[in-house]
């Protein structure tokens, strides 16, 4: 959720030749992974519930701990675990709910409402990012040509995420109830402040039918929790120290996720529609042997480029899909051009691009 505008670098960029689809890669991706499409409920539920349980347990330790070192260690553990749990919102937008009954409810109960990141903030939004004619265009809610913007846009892009927990408490604790009684405010809240999007021009459509009923129910729960949290702090029932630790952990989750978003793509498209192969090459895999991506790009997000080839593949199958494709495709295949070693090199690559004259 953002309304920040990032400046483009001045001058006209040289036009780039369009990238044609690599039929061999697309065919191999489809044929070699047909048996991997079914999500495994035990894996989803076990991973998700363990992440949430560890996250909240560590948060409790961080709040109750006396020594600062223990608070910091527990806070980091809590952040990583809750970040992993929150990352399942991405899976919700792709998985068929009939194959994972109750998972949307479970996500909202254990992560969505407590963290004020309910499922509806991504459902109906992320699918637009994968639309063949929308990716990388002004109609893509999750795309900004960051590599073509001013150098200061990158640190601003990351730092603004630190304010996300405050913005979410305000959105659900203040704007939600006000939007019920203030004419016209509801439309603004839904259109502009109800999506995990980075494109400031994106506007959501008002939900309808069953989607609206589900949205209103979940949003009511978020509003009640946010208002209760505000009341607990104001009355002193929740100490400022405990509240500060909670907000610090949530802020760290948002910043790490924004850093991951920064390196999820190369952000080099200037608004034209792209082929599937071009979308793949503008996206990023950070496969093994790198180990840290398992922490900052959890739940399959380290295979983000592969995910754009096979968006319906469950997260637990992406590693096997990568191994199969790597074992079959020729080394000249564009498949390998989306593989990178880690975050530092990717950040440096994008930063260098912002400094090029245009």
TrEMBL record:
InterPro entries membership: FA_desaturase_dom (IPR005804), Fatty_acid_desaturase (IPR012171)
Biological process per Gene Ontology, one example term: lipid biosynthetic process
Any one cellular-component term (Gene Ontology): membrane
**Any one Gene Ontology molecular-function term assigned to this protein's record:** oxidoreductase activity, acting on paired donors, with oxidation of a pair of donors resulting in the reduction of molecular oxygen to two molecules of water
Q: Which organism is it from?
A: Sphingomonas dokdonensis
Transmembrane residues, as ranges? Answer: 53-83, 104-122, 152-170, 215-234
Q: Which residue numbers delimit the Fatty acid desaturase domain? A: 68-337
Q: Which UniProt keywords apply?
A: Membrane, Transmembrane, Transmembrane helix
* Official protein name in the record: Fatty acid desaturase
């Amino acid at each position: 959720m953002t309304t920040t505008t990032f400046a483009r670098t001045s001058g006209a960029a040289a036009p780039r030749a369009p990238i044609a689809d690599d039929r061999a890669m697309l065919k191999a991706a489809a044929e070699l992974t047909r048996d991997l499409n079914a999500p495994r409920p035990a894996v989803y539920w076990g991973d998700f519930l363990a992440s949430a349980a560890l996250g909240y347990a560590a948060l409790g330790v961080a709040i109750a701990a006396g020594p600062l070192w223990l608070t910091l260690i527990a806070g980091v553990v809590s952040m990583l675990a809750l970040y992993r749990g929150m990352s399942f919102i991405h899976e919700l937008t792709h998985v068929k709910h009939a194959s994972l009954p109750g998972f949307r409810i479970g996500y909202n109960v254990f992560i969505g409402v407590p963290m004020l990141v309910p499922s509806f903030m991504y459902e109906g939004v992320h699918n637009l990012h994968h639309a063949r004619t929308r990716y990388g265009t002004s109609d893509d809610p999750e795309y900004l040509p960051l590599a073509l913007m001013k150098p200061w846009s990158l640190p601003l892009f990351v730092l603004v995420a630190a304010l996300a927990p405050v913005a979410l408490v305000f959105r659900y604790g203040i704007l939600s109830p006000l939007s019920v009684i203030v004419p016209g405010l509801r439309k603004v809240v839904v259109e502009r402040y109800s999506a995990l999007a980075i494109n400031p021009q994106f506007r959501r459509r008002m939900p309808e039918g069953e989607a609206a009923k589900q949205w209103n129910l979940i949003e009511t729960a978020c509003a009640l929790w946010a208002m209760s949290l505000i009341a607990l702090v104001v009355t002193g029932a929740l100490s400022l120290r405990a509240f500060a630790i909670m907000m610090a952990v949530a802020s760290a989750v948002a910043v790490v996720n924004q850093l991951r978003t920064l390196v999820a793509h190369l952000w080099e498209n200037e608004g034209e529609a792209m082929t599937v192969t071009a979308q793949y090459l503008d996206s990023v895999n950070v496969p093994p042997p790198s180990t840290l991506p398992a922490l900052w790009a959890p739940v399959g997000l380290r295979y983000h480029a592969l995910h754009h080839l096979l968006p319906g593949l469950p997260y637990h199958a992406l590693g096997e899909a990568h191994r199969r494709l790597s074992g079959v495709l020729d080394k000249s295949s564009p498949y390998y051009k989306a593989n990178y070693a880690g975050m530092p090199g990717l950040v440096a690559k994008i930063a260098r691009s912002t400094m090029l004259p245009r």
